Amino acid sequence: MTALMNTYGRQPVTFVSGQGVWLTDTDGKRYLDAVSGVGVVALGHSHAAVTDTISRQAATLMHTSNLYRIDAQEKLGAKLCAVAQMEKAFFCNSGAEANEAAIKLARLYGDKKGVESPAIIVMEQSFHGRTLATLSASGNRKIQAGFEPLVSGFVRAPFNDIEAIRTIAQNNRQVVAVLMEPVQGEGGLHTIDDNYLAALRQICDAQGWLLMLDEVQSGNGRTGTYFCYQHYGVLPDVVVTAKGLGNGLPIGACLARGVAAELFQPGNHGSTFGGNPLVCATALTVVEVIEQQKLAANAAKQGQRIREKLQQKLAGNRSVREFRGKGLMIGIELDRPCGELVGKALARGMLINVTSDRVVRLLPPLIINDAEADQIADTVATLINEFANA
Fold first, then answer.
1. Of 194, 281, 330, 352, which one's alpha carbon is 20 to 30 angstroms from that of 201?
2. What is d(CA 371, CA 373) in angstroms, rounded to the nearest whole number?
3. Per-residue pLDDT at 1
């Protein structure tokens, strides 16, 4: 009997400690963590620099509220804006909250332009969070069911289909922004074509729309550059991130440039806990470690290594439909639901995830080495081959 609401299908294991890419349960069994808390623990568990920052900051000052200036928040804002080529930052507590901020920016932008009912283009199969606005923006009927009426003001388009965007531009004068993930994390690790983002930028410029990118999962080095859009040489107007930014402490960020950076004024938006001294000092350490240790480059290298080994070991396996992803966001789509693989991997001492019913998702910490990458590939390939032959 538990006092917790039944909101998760939890695995039958409790972890008591972690070190690097490894977790240890109550029985002393060790597990290679190829999920990293759903892309959160980018630097691995119990990272020394993160632990030191948390300890020092908690012993000094944890919270004052945003009624006052916060030195760590200003430093983190400057650092992230420099990395992202943005101008202003708003800090909150999660990816959903960061996306809420982006949605409110778009609405305010439309209002100031005199648009009566501002609309945002969002993508099919997308996931932006579980608040009412962000689940309404998401292209996932499963998470919306039972929560109607949904928030209006979203126009859906097929992912990675630039002609669909052009058609909407011709027929809908209420659109003021586009919100999309460069890699759809929950939606099955779908990626965009190399020329898609540049074409989308051109359309947004021509129409006067904001280009807003959800990098909650793909940011902070995970795809091989600090932000995924940096692969394509295109700048958004707004970018949101969270997950790997705090290495386990809850923090989200909405970054903006140009007109989008000047929209919020006192009273338009806020957060009691957002950007407090503890989380900002920690996130600043995370960003610095990612840069200093070139972990984005390691994510690119190890992601390629894992994908190549999986392709070799799964060659000829007819249950495998496609390998997808970028950097250490890796998806293997199978021809049928494969949720049972999560439990089978757990029994073999590895944590994996299945999303969209039939996509094995791997999000290991950015610090993994060659041996750990090989172990992930070997174990996952063995599980999938056994699954296909069962």
1. 330
2. 5
3. 64
Q: How far apart are CA 108 and CA 104, in angstroms?
A: 6
Domain ranges of the chain: 15-44+295-389, 49-292
- DSSP H helical segments within the chain, as ranges? 36-39, 48-58, 71-84, 95-112, 132-137, 141-144, 162-171, 196-207, 277-292, 295-313, 340-347, 370-389
pLDDT digits (tens, 9 = 90+) for 93-118: 999 999 999 999 999 999 999 999 99
Percent of the chain clearing pLDDT 70 (strictly above): 99
φ, ψ (nearest 5 deg) of residue 352 = -130, 180
Helices 48-58 and 277-292, axial angle in degrees (round to 10): 160
> What is the average per-residue pLDDT within 133-147?
94
Bridge partners of 18, per DSSP, are 23
Which CATH number is correct for 15-44+295-389, 3.90.1140.10, 3.40.250.10, 3.40.190.10, 3.90.1150.10?
3.90.1150.10
**Architecture in CATH of 49-292:** 3-Layer(aba) Sandwich (3.40)
Tokens describing residue 8: 């998760």
Please compute the mean of the pLDDT values over residues 177-197 and round it to a whole number.
96
> pTM for the full model?
0.96
